[in-house]
Amino acid sequence: MSQWRESIKNALPFGVKRAIGETLDAFDRARQWPAATFHPWRRDSIRRLRALKDIHRGQRVFIIGNGPSLRQTDMSKLRNEYTIGMNRIFLMFPELGFQTTYLCSVNDLVIEQSAAELQALNLPRFVSWRARRWLKPDDNLYFLYTTYTGPKFSTDLTGRLWEGATVTNIALQVAFYLGFQEAILIGVDHNFVTQGKPNTTVTSQGDDPNHFSPFYFGKGFRWQLPDLETSERGYRMAREAYEAAGRRVVDATVGGKLTIFPKVDYDSLF
After folding, report:
1. For the chain, what percent of residues have pLDDT higher than 90?
2. Which residue in 22, 126, 180, 236 could disulfide with 61, CB within 3.0 to 4.6 Å?
């Protein structure tokens, strides 16, 4: 039966298969929506998120990726800047001597394996609604309704956000909602040594060559291979949304491979 079903699937025109896939994705999002809207934890997050709307209007923020280029970036210059860190950036906090202003994390594998550290952080954290399986509510934790499907750039954190295959796309939507006029990317290398089929789950066999620390996804850590094409689709949407609002995203990553945003020299920003 499975071979018969697969044969029919392969015989369908691409446009038909895409339409069927998008319909199934829409049904799945509809299934998630009630809990992501009416659950008490989400209702509380929505209430507190509304208080954050445009609180940084007109200011700038550095969105910090986790690429190896951070080791070639003078991070001490960010001590008095607004910053949004992502995922396991907390590994760098001890040597920095300060924390990022905010932190975003939406990948299930990252949250599951970093739950204790994420829960213990004393700073505002934006996490996916799925993270409720591993994280408990607190006054600095905001549950976001994020999805893998339904591409869009959202300007409202209380509704649905598309992940765009990278937490950086969520950070850009967070920065927009908080009112930042300029978002500056650093450490977003957009380049991975480890290759393979996008979104495949793999287990690290040794030191991590793709991030600022060899222990970031160290031996035994489960993670998903990057989907750079989908990430770029999200970045283009972010650029369009910022520019339409009279704001901008620039890329100050040292040696970064991303070409979606205008490049600026990091040191020139200070």
Report:
1. 86
2. 180
